[in-house]
Amino acid sequence: MEKYRKFVIAPMMDWTDRHCRFFHRQLTRRALLYTEMVVADAVIQGARERLLGFDDTEHPVALQLGGSDPQKLAEAARIGEAFGYDEINLNVGCPSDRVQSGTFGACLMKAPVLVADCIAAMKVSVSIPVTVKCRIGVDEQDPEPALDALADGVFAAGADALWVHARKAWLEGLSPKENRDVPPLDYSRVYRLKARKQNKFIGINGGIQSLEEALDHIDHVDGAMLGRTAYHTPGILAGVDAAFYGDKPDALDFVALIDAMADYAAHHIERGGRLGHVTRHMVGVFHGLPGARRYRQILSTDATRPGAGPDVLKAAFAAVDFGRADAEAA
Q1: Residue 24 annotated as binding?
Q2: pTM, whole model, 2 decimals?
Q3: Among 116, 256, 277, 284, which is most exposed with the fewest C-beta within 10 angstroms?
Q4: Which CATH number fits domain 2-245: 3.20.20.70, 3.40.50.720, 3.40.50.150, 3.40.50.620?
């Protein structure tokens, strides 16, 4: 099972974007990166380069789609494959109001046959893997038959993997934010699904706080997905390749990291962007190190000012005291 271990960095609506993915790729070469959910209609009719464009260094990267029309999803999947994505993922887990009004996301847990039809259409249209991300259930559903029905349907339709957020989504009475914390986690439900589907790839998501916790889950399922923890303390991602893929552990070269991000930011600014679009994702990378607070302050203030350039990022980096950190570690 070692070679099948997989680590995924989950998208976070209104937080992650292509700049965040580029940053995360500097920390881990192997983790699969997810885009934010893009509605199939937008992919078909919208500004595709703005919605789907990504840097080649982001590979492997998966395009996450939202929708409930099999033919539209199939067309959007074809477009995503042509853009160069390594995987297409169908979101059946997002509980936001915007998603519910469009009849996709978590509310599709109530329509497993339709979800299976969507997967079947997508599988026919592309040659890359097609996967699903879901919840264990919604509202008053019993998670036992609800998750089994969804899993049975999508795997019969050809899905290559199922990623399960181990919480229910409450579409009535809880906000999207509350849906990330309030419904209790039920990891054992996902473990039971894997025990029943031993020859299928089952990954787990929800509330995982560290790589150590993620590795514990790998004793029961095939992969682990981190979202908020990866975003707020991205430095932990430097340990992913060794922990999950057996690579030789290497100390993170912070100088090279900052140089790469400064160059990336400079190109983004040349194209009309702002430094803050890039650096807002980097605020937590030195969490726990001496000088990290000053680093965060500089990025939170100076980097957001009009005209700010990559020199601001390098000034923030200079505030981090690695010598003191090494001394304290000794």
Answers
A1: no
A2: 0.92
A3: 256
A4: 3.20.20.70
